[in-house]
Amino acid sequence: DAGVIQSPRHEVTEMGQEVTLRCKPISGHNSLFWYRQTMMRGLELLIYFNNNVPIDDSGMPEDRFSAKMPNASFSTLKIQPSEPRDSAVYFCASSFALAGGVQETQYFGPGTRLLVL
Amino acid sequence: AQSVTQLGSHVSVSEGALVLLRCNYSSSVPPYLFWYVQYPNQGLQLLLKYTSAATLVKGINGFEAEFKKSETSFHLTKPSAHMSDAAEYFCAVTNQGGSEKLVFGKGTKLTVNP
């Protein structure tokens, strides 16, 4: 298995631009997570999906952030408009959730390093 | 609500020395506990996990952790550090059964000196 795939690996953009991060989870996994990692705040869960449905988006910073999962093999995290404080490493992770929401181990992608100038 | 505290954002050891990374958790329900490792410029990788079976859990690369309910701790240890162990280590907690989201600690960066 190729593992969780994220693209791009690096993104440099200017303030005000739209940024779209992409994630392909491990085949067969039915839960997908978006995390943000910064020096100041550590690793934060932004949103997670189960069976393509957003379950908890309480970690999404503000309306500038949106996430979609149109099918089981693809998810996007969009920032519009981007700001310098959005600079961080964004991780996607996937897992298999059993009946009742029991989550198996999360597998992380390599991350997208975003720099907003 | 659950939380994790990792004592020491940086730990430095000599090659061959004992590695001890501390993690204390807070949970109102029985927990599942995890240790993840992050090598430079990579994503997180599971080292080991406690899911209410044996309290002493063995993971990859010679690491182990012991769940101590009375101390609300899940410290990570390795008898002899290797240079390749240099990385950042994250402790994480969820509820027993794993139906709640995983809550991560701030991480501990381990440096191994030759």
Which structural traits does this protein have?
heterodimer; A: 117 residues; mainly beta; 7-stranded mixed β-sheet; 4-stranded antiparallel β-sheet; 11 strands; B: 114 residues; 6-stranded mixed β-sheet; 5-stranded antiparallel β-sheet
Structural features, described:
- The complex is a heterodimer of chains A (117) and B (114).
- Chain A is mainly β and 117 residues long.
- Helix content of chain A is 0%, strand content 53%.
- In chain A, strands 2, 4, 5, 6, 9, 10 and 11 form a seven-stranded mixed beta sheet that branches. Chain A has a four-stranded antiparallel beta sheet with strand order 1-3-8-7, with no helix packed on it.
- Helix content of chain B is 0%, strand content 56%.
- Chain B is built from no helices and eleven strands.
- Chain B has strands at 3-7, 10-14, 19-26, 31-38, 44-50, 56-58, 64-68, 73-78, 87-95, 103-104, 108-113.
- In chain B, the strands form two sheets. In chain B, strands 2, 4, 5, 9, 10 and 11 form a six-stranded mixed beta sheet that branches.
- In chain B, a hairpin with a 5-residue loop joins β4 and β5 (44-50).
- Chain B starts with a strand and ends with a strand.
- Chains A and B meet through β5 and β10 of A and β5 and β10 of B.
Shape of chain B: globular
Estimated helix fraction of chain A:
under 10%
The mean pLDDT of chain B is: 92
Q: Outline of chain A, from the CA principal axes?
A: globular
Average pLDDT level of chain A? 92
Q: What is the terminal separation of chain B in angstroms?
A: 41 Å
Report the structural category of chain B: mainly beta
* Major sheet characteristics of chain B: 6 strands, mixed
Summing up helix and strand content along with how strands pair, one would put the structural category of chain A as mainly beta
Number of strands of chain B: 11
Radius of gyration of chain B: 13 Å
